[in-house]
Amino acid sequence: MTTNRLELEGQGLTEVPSLAGAGEVEYLSFYTNELTSVPETLWELTGLRVLILADNKIAELSPSIGKLTQVHTLDLGHNRLTELPDELGCLPELSEYLYLSDNLLTRFPDSLCRLGKLRYLGITDNQLTELPSAISGLTSLRELRLYHNKLTSLPESIGELSTLRELHLRGNRLTTLPASIGDLSELRQLDLRGNRLTSLPESLAKLSKLDKLDLRWNKHLPDSAVLHELEERDCMVLR
Fold first, then answer.
1. 13, 14, 15, 19 alpha-carbon torsion, rounded to 10°
2. How far is CA 12 from the centre of its chain?
3. Which end of the chain is more exposed for a tag (fewer CB within 10 A), N or C?
4. Can you say whether the dihedral through the CA atoms of 212, 96, 113, 57 is positive or negative?
5. pLDDT of 1 strictly over 50
6. Which residues make beta-bridge pairs with 238?
7. 20 CB-contact burial (10 Å; exposed 0-12 / middle 13-18 / buried 19+)
8. What's the pLDDT tens digit per position in 15-49?
9. 111 has a pLDDT exceeding 80
10. Please, which contacts does 110-118 make with residues 24 or more away whose CB atoms are closer than 8 Å?
11. E-only strand ranges, 76-179
12. Sequence-ordered alpha helix ranges (H) in the chain
C-alpha cells in the first residue's frame, strides 16, 4: 500500500512547484491543474509508483520519463499530447494502469507494445487510425479501451492477447474484424457500437467466455448464424 502521498489536485497550478525533499514520495497527483509542461526534476523522483498528470494542458513529455522504473500506474489522460517518447515503453513495473485518453495522438507507438506486464490500457478519444502488429507484445493485458478513434481495421495479431477480458472499440470506423479475434479465449465483453461493420467472422463462435457483445449502431450489419449461436449460449447480444 502506497503511504507516501503528495496530492496537489485542482489548485490551478501553471507549473510544477519545487519538489525538493520529496525524494521518498510514492504517489504524486497533479490532477486538474493548468500545467503545460513537466520539469526534468520530476523525473528524478525515481521512487514513484503512481503518477497522475491527468486533466492538464501538457503537450510534450521528456524521454527522462524512462527513469521512473518503479511506476505501476501512470495517468496522462486529458492533455494535449501529440506523441509519446519511446522511453514510455521501457518502464519495467508499469503493470496496473496506463491512461492516455483524450489527447491528440494519431499513432499508437510500437514502444508501448513492450509493456508486457501492463493489465489496463486506455487510449480512447484520440485520432488513432491503426494499431501496430506488435500489439501482441501486451501479453498481460486484461482490458483494452480504444473507443472514439479512427480505426478502420484491426491487426491479425490482436488475437494473441490471450489474457484479454474486455475489448472496447465503440465509435471507430471498422468494417470487418480479423478472424483471429476468435482466439481471444478469455474475452468476456466486446463493444463494437457505432462502427461500420458489414459482416462478422464465424470465429466469434469460439469465444466461449463471451457474455456481452454490443453491436448497436452498425447500420449495415446483417443477421448471422454466429449471433444466434452466441445467444443460445446466453451471451447478451445487443443489436
1. 0
2. 27
3. N
4. positive
5. no
6. 214
7. exposed
8. 999 887 666 899 999 999 999 999 999 999 999 99
9. yes
10. 110/134, 111/84, 111/85, 111/86, 111/87, 112/84, 112/88, 112/138, 113/89, 113/137, 113/138, 114/89, 114/90, 115/89, 115/91, 116/140, 117/92, 117/93, 118/94
11. 97-99, 120-122, 143-145, 166-168
12. 225-232
pLDDT (tens digit per residue) in 50-84? 999 999 999 999 999 999 999 999 999 999 999 99
Q: What is the CA radius of gyration of the chain?
A: 19
If you search the block for the grid coordinates 500500500, which residue do you land on? 1
Q: Which three cell numbers mark 192?
A: 463494437
What type of residue is 124?
Answer: T
Set of cell numbers at residue 38: 513537466
Cell 494499431 belongs to 131
Ramachandran quadrant class, 148 (left: phi over 0; alpha: psi -120 to 50; beta: rest): left
Integer CA distances (angstroms), 19 to 24, 46, 64, 174, 200, in order = 11, 13, 16, 46, 53
CA-based end-to-end distance of the chain: 43
pTM score of the predicted model: 0.95
Whether the Cβ atoms of residue 61 and residue 40 lie closer than 8 Å to each other: no
- What's the CA gap between 118 and 97, in Å, rounded? 7
